Amino acid sequence: ALGSDVNSILGSLGSDIPSYVASGVPNFFQGFPTGPAVQSSLGLDKSQVAALPTQVLNIPPYANLTNQGWNVRFHGNVYKQPNTTTQKLNDLANVFLIGTSIDQLPPSQADQARNLTASIFVIQQGDTNVSIIHLEPAPMAGASGESGGGGAVTPSGGAQDITLPYPTTPEGDFDVFVPIKNVSGGGLMAGNGTNQIQRMNVYVEGASIGNATAYLVPPTGFTIVSDIDDILRITKIYEPKEGLLNSFARPFVPWMNMPDFYANWSRSIPDFHFHYLTTTPEQATRNYMDFIYKTYPGGSFDTRPLNFSNVAATLSIRKFLLNKVFETFPQRKFILIADTSNSDVMRDYPQMATDFPNQVQCIFLRNTSSTDSGDKFPYDTSGFKNLNQQMYMFFNVPDDLTGLDIVNGQCYNQSIKQNLTFGYQGLPFGLGSSSSSSGNSSSSGGKTSDAGKNLFSGALALAEEELDRGSYIMAEHESAVAQYEPQKHAIVQIGSCVLIVPVNRFHATEVEPRKGSVQDMAGGTKVGVVATKPACAVNDSSSVNSLDGEEPTEEEKHTLRKVSDKLPWSAFLVAIVELCERFAYYGLSGPFQNYISNSYNDPNGLPGAI
Q: Which residues are 246's β-sheet partners?
């Protein structure tokens, strides 16, 4: 009921408010350029592109057993890497960095930022035949703490060449199951004659990079499907500045002692198949695969392919990939692990237990909001209402998983309090919090009342409505501040967010300038801050006035009446800050693309109405 209430509040506004606003989850790494845009931006003609060597991104595949033998799912992307100058890479990398620039990073971090930027600005090769793929036994894969990598064995033979049956998609992707030859004697073991997972190296002829490892997985056994960000490594995807630095520049760092638990599972559970599923777009996943190879047991991979590039597709890709691996191995049991900051996880994981009731063994979710104050996004636990508590657990730290016998279905550590409301929990700033998760080892992150949830959702909806009108310009440097005119605009600051706002969006009686409280970072000049109350947030929604004397439109009046007429101005500003600080950095479509946010915090600049 709570989820439908939130969506009904948003939907009633009559504007196209995306579902990720209701869920409170930003779309990280959105809007990467594709081939034609990269070619155009770099000024390359067709002959220059044709002269570039062809490269292949190989995603580590899994294989299942069919009546025809082993069936390998080859998937990846074919592309060409432009010869981009260091200065151009620096300029492009700075687009992704918040509050810093590449020349301010340590040399190793600057190199990583350039390398990742180069992997994003590639020219995908659509409608292209993939070169011959070579398979050969893989001696090791992954750093599970075991000699040879753990999680699989090296077959004594089975080397062969594969030709894919189809060309690449328009985005350069390929994803197809191809049967490989059965080899008797000193080759591959037949899947119906062994419980062991076999690993094979995969590389494409003529490509200088892009090797991967294929995992031949028997029909029965256990598979863990693991997210990566904020469960296996420290990302802080819910804090844009930190999330982007941790992904673009800083070395990948494991989350606490999580590698120890994966290594233990690899050693103690026979033939445990590790499958890593991240919705990070495939161009940015080489660092992910390298990190897993060095830190965790080797395993197959799924990433977000390029044809899942818009917001709606991004929110559906996890379920699509989960369905694929579940349907590929209908007799295997699955352990699902991720964190609460992903709205698609909170929806899709419990749904998998409903759709595939005999296949989901355990669900483990790190509660990021209970242990990381930077995660202010609410999360929806309603999907777990009808699930048996013994099959899932919200946990705080890896040690909460100690001693669980997941093979025999023990997925819940009773010493870890859950405190679930089966609705929206973890609202930011304590809005609607009726209890706290502090003390003991609770993983609840706080319970949330309907009133608090509706209050924040209404504020969020109004903030989105205002931002969608294009009324706000975030100020950092001269190009933005130059648009400020004292008689036409107010400047509002809360926390590290500064907004330049047309005054005709504000209630006349609320305008009260305060001088000298915000400093323009570029020019060093002082500009005024106006404590104001926007027309759309006044208590009396039936009589809204604007400074230019224009009567509000019927659409505006309709919007006002659909949301609480007692919506506090403070809640509205809080919601604007949540939006501008947490969504604007992700390259979303629409007006967000034109916003620039600053990264400084002037506590004296807070509007007087707060």
A: none
Under 8 Å between Cβ of 455 and 431 = yes
Judged against a pLDDT cut of 90, whether residue 281 lies above it is answered with no
539 has a pLDDT exceeding 50: no
Give the residue among 65, 203, 221 at the shortest CA–CA distance from 133: 203
- On whether residue 350 sits in a domain, the answer given is no
Q: Which residue has the higher pLDDT, 485 or 470?
A: 485
Computed over its alpha carbons, how large is the radius of gyration of the chain?
Answer: 26
Within 13 Å of residue 321, how many CA atoms lie on the same side as its CB? 30
Return the bridge partners of 513, or none. 530
Q: Is residue 410 part of a domain?
A: no
Distance CA 378, CA 601 (A): 24
- 3-class DSSP state for residue 493? strand
- The tens digit of pLDDT for each residue in 571-594 reads 454 455 555 444 433 333 222 222
In contact, 196 and 155? CB cutoff 8 Å: no
Please report, in angstroms and rounded to a whole number, the separation of the first and last CA atoms in the chain: 31
Q: Alpha helices of 95-173 — where are they, by DSSP H?
A: 107-120
Closest of 270, 404, 382 to residue 337, by C-alpha: 404
Print the SS3 string covering 276-318. EEEEEEHHHCHHHHHHHHHHCECCEEEEECCCCCCHHHHHHHH
* pLDDT tens readout for residues 77-108: 999 999 999 999 998 888 778 778 999 999 99
Structure-token pair, residue 572 = 């509205």
Residue holding tokens 């709205």? 343
If one compares 4 and 300, the residue with the highest pLDDT of the two is 300
User: Beta strands of 40-95 (E only): which ranges?
Assistant: 54-59, 62-66, 69-80
Looking at the whole model, is its pTM more than 0.70?
yes
d(CA 609, CA 534): 11
Q: Is residue 432 part of a domain?
A: no
Encoded tokens for 545: 């006035």
Question: Residue 457's pLDDT is what?
Answer: 53
What residue numbers bound the domain in which 495 lies? 470-605
Per-residue model confidence as pLDDT tens digits over 437-468 = 323 334 544 444 454 445 555 555 555 555 44
Given the structure tokens 């501040």, which residue do they identify? 481
Identity at 229, one-letter amino acid code: D
* Residue at 522 is within a domain: yes
Matching residue, tokens 């800083």: 250
Provide the phi-psi class of 42: left if phi over 0, else alpha when psi is between -120 and 50, else beta.
Answer: alpha
How many residues are given for the chain? 610
How many folded domains does the chain comprise? 1
Rounded distance between C-alpha atoms, residue 529 and residue 499, angstroms = 10
Burial of 122 (0-12, 13-18, 19+ CB in 10 A): buried
Residue 198 contacts residue 189 (beta carbons within 8 Å)? yes
What the block records as the tokens of 330 is 């209908």
Q: Which residues of 233-248 are buried (b: 16+ CB within 10 A; e: fewer)?
A: bbbbbbbbbbbbbbbb
Closest residue by Cα to residue 448 from 15, 19, 24, 16: 24
Helix 240-248 to helix 107-120 angle (10° resolution) is: 90
pLDDT band at 322 (very low <50, low <70, confident <90, very high): very high
Distance, CA of 599 to CA of 249 (rounded, Å) = 18
